[in-house]
Amino acid sequence: MIDARYLAFDAVVQARSFEAAARRLNLTQSAVSQRIKQLEAELGQVLLVRSKPVQPTPAGRRLLPYVAQLRLVEAEAARALAGDGHGAPVRLSVGVNADSLATWFLPAVQAVVAADALVLDCVVDDQDHTHALLASGEVLGCVSTRSDPMRGCVARALGTMRYLCVATPAFCRRHFPDGLTRAALARAPAIIYGRHDDMHDAFLQRHFGLAPGQYPHHVIPSSEGFCAMAEAGLGYGFVPQIQIARPLAEGALTRVAAGHHEDVALFWHHWQVQSPIMARLADAVVAGAGAVLAAR
């Protein structure tokens, strides 16, 4: 079983207070505080800033990923001791970008999730930022654009997701009658995913000299909503090719910038030492992505 002191530390970080953590653990606040003091004394590091809300110190943040792994190992051990190979469902937290979640990720992992009786906690963020979720211990694996793993981790290539700039034919006739020009792009409503989405900014600045803020845009923080917005003729934007193959083939959408595309290389990051269940999930992610995404 996981050391009770680590459980107390994790509970305080999750609840952001000693009082709430004590209620969660069915202990007194004094008992929780004492366990954390013992852990800090053993490790020789202050792990928590006793503020409101309570925050982990830099040392505490470095400890969080290991505590997350301990929780998973404990859950797997409890299942193994149950004797039937099943027991209670095992919860896995993973970081994934919205476009992967809407396209290839769930088909890739569905067999493992069903066979191992897992419950997934998918934390969605931009693929350039999911790496921080792994570093903080919030997730045990993540889809990321970073090719370099952090210390103690492995980065496995998944393939390349290609993005095409698309809109409806009617939208193009209305806003780009003379093709893509700087003046037309400064007026036509674009679609972007959110504040971390810089693909559109980079495209317009690199090819047309339009800086961020010099063009109107919708903000649609949903991969499915993004596509629906484009298909409704309300804007143009970059969408994964695998997500819009059908509307492109049927003529509901057309490429705005013919011949231009943006390629995003994706990687699966996980800890070097993995539990058996996490290893199976990682293998499924890599195999599933490889069957759909373009090779790097």
UniProtKB/TrEMBL annotation:
Database matches in PROSITE patterns: HTH_LYSR
Top-rank taxon? Bacteria
Tell whether Zinc-finger is among the UniProt keywords.
no
Any one GO molecular-function label of the UniProt entry: DNA binding
Q: Which InterPro entries match?
A: ArgP (IPR017685), LTTR (IPR050176), LysR_HTH_N (IPR000847), LysR_subst-bd (IPR005119), WH-like_DNA-bd_sf (IPR036388), WH_DNA-bd_sf (IPR036390)
Instruction: Please list the residue ranges annotated as the HTH lysR-type domain.
Output: 8-57
**Is DNA-binding there in the keyword field?**
yes
Which key words are in the record?
A: DNA-binding, Transcription, Transcription regulation
Q: Which Pfam families match?
A: HTH_1, LysR_substrate
The record's family statement is: Belongs to the LysR transcriptional regulatory family.
The protein's name is LysR family transcriptional regulator ArgP
Give the organism the record lists: Denitromonas iodatirespirans
